[in-house]
Amino acid sequence: MKKILLLVLFALFLDAQVYDGIAVVVKDEAITLEDIKKEMKISHVDVKTATDTLIRQKLEAAEIKERQITVSSSEVYDDIKKIASRNNMSISDLYDAVREANGLGSTQFKEKIRQKLLSQKLYSSIAYASIDEPSQEEIEEYFELHKEEFNHPASFFVVIYDAKNKELLEKKVNNPMFLSPQIAMNEQELPYDRISPELAALLSKTQLHTFTPIVPNGKGGFMSFYLKSLKSTKEDGIESVKNQIINAIMAQKREVILSDYFARLRDNADINIIRMPQ
Questions:
Q1: In angstroms, how far is CA 54 from the centroid of its own chain?
Q2: How many CA atoms lie within 13 A of 27 on its CB side?
Q3: d(CA 195, CA 70)
Q4: Which of 145, 117, 93 is nearest to 249 (CA)?
Q5: CATH topology for the 19-61+133-149+236-278 domain
Q6: DSSP the chain
Q7: Where are the beta strands (DSSP E) in the chain?
Q8: Confidence of residue 234 (pLDDT cuts 50, 70, 90)
Q9: Using an 8 Å Cβ cutoff, are 189 and 231 in contact?
Q10: What does pTM read for this prediction?
Q11: Relative orientation angle of helices 73-86 and 91-102, to the nearest 10 degrees
């Protein structure tokens, strides 16, 4: 009898420990206090925002399961190939860059891509059928309100420093007077319209006469760009950025529809908030 009582008490103790770690239950799926703290740290947001994000993720996962949406391994691999190609990298170099930047192994990275593709398919099934193409008036209004987004240098004049040894390159970035025969140097003019969007964004964020962060060079080594000067700022006409504007407006409309959809879903879902991190 004592043994049975001890087993019951031990089981209750274990249940209490599990329960103590749970913050929210969404459709029988738990969100732990640790999950919320991790989201706060990764996304640099407060408790409420982190909790709302995780609740939406659980609701999305439930919708994906209910709608029987799937993503194949080949779809994941194709998306990874596109990302690598866009950044002029091999797939192996892309994996190295992701590991360097985010600490994600290739298996974790593939899972992130799979989740992204699942969400995209879900969003398509919910929102795309409900969105109308923006009118010319909407396009012109968006352009006028966001003109600064379409102002950019025509070209970047840079010195590219390239090395196999990252620590050696860091010495150069931290001390421009440092010289090493193992660091290659190459001056180039990089036209804004002929480089990848990622590189354009990186250079646009870099102050004149400073180095960009060190990035993989796509050949197993590393590089950093020293921004020497800029060619005259150029403002694109509306026709040259029309597709970009349409995509931005469609994205806004899609997010409104999705936010409304998941807000209604949340109102009707079985969600039990137990406690929040202190």
A1: 16
A2: 17
A3: 34
A4: 145
A5: Triger factor/SurA peptide-binding fold (1.10.4030)
A6: -HHHHHHHHHHHHHHHHHHHHEEEEETTEEEEHHHHHHHHHHHT--HHHHHHHHHHHHHHHHHHHHTT----HHHHHHHHHHHHHHTT--HHHHHHHHHHHH---HHHHHHHHHHHHHHHHHHHHHHGGGPPPPPHHHHHHHHHHTGGGGEEESEEEEEEEEES-HHHHHHHHH-TT---TTSEEEEEEEEGGGS-HHHHHHHHTSPTTSBPPPEE-SSSSEEEEEEEEE--EEE--GGGGHHHHHHHHHHHHHHHHHHHHHHHHHHHS-EEE-----
A7: 22-26, 29-32, 151-153, 155-163, 184-191, 215-216, 222-230, 233-235, 271-273
A8: low
A9: yes
A10: 0.58
A11: 80
Where do the structural domains in the chain lie, given as residue ranges?
Answer: 19-61+133-149+236-278, 67-130, 155-231
- Same CATH fold assignment for domains 19-61+133-149+236-278 and 155-231: no
pLDDT digits (tens, 9 = 90+) for 144-186: 888 777 778 888 999 999 999 989 999 999 998 898 999 999 9
The residue type found at 23 is A
Token pair in block for residue 149: 């987004």
The CATH fold assigned to 155-231 is Chitinase A; domain 3 (3.10.50)
Q: How many whole angstroms separate alpha carbon 135 and alpha carbon 228?
A: 41
Tokens of 79: 């998306």
How far apart are the C-alpha atoms of 155 and 104, rounded to whole Å? Answer: 34
105-158: pLDDT as tens digits: 888 889 989 988 998 898 888 876 667 888 999 999 998 888 777 778 888 999
* Mean of pLDDT values over 10-19: 42
CA–chain centroid gap for 2, Å, is 55
The tokens describing 224, both together, are: 């950093």
Give the pLDDT score at 144. Answer: 86
